[in-house]
Structure formats: C-alpha cells, structure tokens
Amino acid sequence: MRKIVIAGNWKMYKTQREASEFLQKFLPELEQTPEEREVILCAPFTDLGVMSKSLHGSRVQLGAQNVHWEDEGAYTGEISGFMLLEIGVRYVIVGHSERRQYFGETDETVNLRLKAVQRHGLTPILCVGESKQQRDAGETERIISTQLQKDLVDIDQQNLIIAYEPIWAIGTGDTCEAMEANRVIGVIRSQLQNRDVSIQYGGSVKPNLIDELMAQPEIDGVLVGGASLDPAGFARIVNYK
Ligand code: PGA
Fold first, then answer.
1. pLDDT recorded at residue 1
2. CATH assignment at residue 117
3. What is the C-alpha to C-alpha distance for residues 182 and 176, in angstroms, rounded to an integer?
4. What are 124-176's pLDDT values in tens digits?
5. Cβ-contact 69, 113 below 8 angstroms
6. 140-151 and 107-119 are packed helices; what angle lies between their axes, rounded to 10 degrees?
7. DSSP secondary structure of 178-208
8. Count of CB atoms within 10 A of residue 205's CB?
C-alpha cells in the first residue's frame, strides 16, 4: 500500500539548541495528525543524537541527509549506516540535487549509498529531478528515466521512497504546478517494478500550496526544505486537509 510520507529536509540549518526549540513547538501540533501519515525530520548529523532522545515516544521519525556506502573504515569526514542506526535514525535522503551539484555525487555513488541504506535496514528517500535547462529542452522524462535506471540497480523497491524534485523548483519559490508534478510522478511510477512505492514531490513546498498538492492522485507526500524550518508552517503542511 502507498504510504503518505511528509518529510522535512533541514539541510545545513539548526544547531542542537535550535532543533530542541523547534521540537518543543512542533510536537504539540501533531496531536490531531491522522495516524497513517509518516512524519520525518531529516536533520544535520550533529542534531540527530539529541533529537532522537526528544522524539522517543513521539510519532516523528528521524532521518539523515546522507550516508557513506562502507560500514566503517578510513573515510575521514564520513558517517556510516551503523552509526545512524544506533542513534535511532530510520530514513536517509540519497542523491539530493545539492549533493549531485556541489559534492560530486553521481548515479554510481547514489546507487552505492542506496544499497548501504537498505543493508542497514533503513529506508532511503531517493531524489530525482531535472534542471531548468533540461526541462526547457523537453528532456524531463529522459533525464528522470536515466536517473532511475542507474540509481535503482539491485535496489529493493519494497523498501524505498522516491522524491521528485525538479531542480528549478528547489529553494526558488517557483513551485512546480500540482498537476504537472502529478504527471511526472505518474511517469516515475510507470517505470518502477513496485507501483506501490511512495513518491513525494519536493521543491518550494509551502503551507498555502500543500492542500492542492496532496489532492493529486499520484502524489504520496512531500519533501520540504525551507518551509520545514518553521514549526508552525511545517505543522500546517503535516496537517494538510
Ligand atoms: P525547498 O527544498 O523546499 O526549500 O525548495 C526542497 C528540498 O531541497 O528538498
């Protein structure tokens, strides 16, 4: 069954103190949130330990924003799946366009990370999406198909979330129209072996747009950057109507 998944991606925002302040305001807002919605916060590594304690017994799951593919070793600056698992992380974002753009992430390393996430019993949130230039050239479908083909080699589609994140919509305020996001997500779904994979939309999701996005039949949730930093705003997104 397709699960509804609402995830915040804090990127490189919030110290431990700020994360705790956020949770104090955010958690009480979830009392009426329907049970079947999975709510995830993907926080910086330094916040995960303290958040794991505060989230104990709450309905919010913890996510990381990256993971290395080896279990341990001489990889200065990296974090392994074991380390995340031990502190209670359940989800890991893999292949975000910012990592592809600024940190040399390729479809090959995305695939290695996806395998590592699954090997540790965690669930990956795989991000795919086209740039403005690619969209203007009519290449959206081709780019996304290539990403899916390469990223998903030997990946278990029973334990996977995908986020359609058009790069031109991320952090720009230029949200993809709900119907167009729905269409592309339908294209993504048609290329999967498991049609029940939850597929999110991400890119300038705001509280005032959430109801329309979630009304679309193919959209199973959202991956939210900027708007997940504000507890009231993110609560409104989680409690969409
Ligand atoms: P945004 O980021 O909501 O700030 O556009 C989304 C993302 O990068 O996942």
1. 82
2. 3.20.20.70
3. 10
4. 999 999 999 999 999 999 999 999 999 999 999 999 999 999 999 999 999 99
5. yes
6. 50
7. HHHHHHHHHHHHHT-S-TT-EEEEESS--GG
8. 28
pLDDT tens digits for range 38-53: 999 999 999 999 999 9
Q: Which residues 6+ apart lie within 8 Å of 173 measured at CB?
A: 204
Q: Indicate if ligand 1 lies below 6 Å from the C-beta of 204.
A: yes
Nearest CA to ligand 1 atom 7: 225
37 touches 235 (CB < 8 A): no
Can you tell me the distance from the alpha carbon of 54 to that of 212, in angstroms, rounded to the nearest whole number?
Answer: 32
CA of 133 to the centre of ligand 1 (A): 19
Domains: count for the chain: 1
Residue 194 CA to chain centroid, in angstroms? 19
For ligand 1, say whether the CB of 226 is within 6 Å of any of its atoms. yes
Q: The whole model's pTM is what?
A: 0.97
Residue nearest to atom 9 of ligand 1 (CA): 225
Alpha carbons 226 and 78: distance in angstroms, whole number: 25
Work out the number of other CB atoms within 10 angstroms of the CB of residue 209. Answer: 19
H runs (alpha helix) in 87-156: 97-102, 107-119, 132-136, 140-151
Ligand 1: nearest atom to the Cα of 205: 3
Atom of ligand 1 at shortest distance to CA of 171? 5
State which residues form the domain around 27.
4-238
User: Which ligand 1 atom is the nearest neighbour of the CA of 163?
Assistant: 9
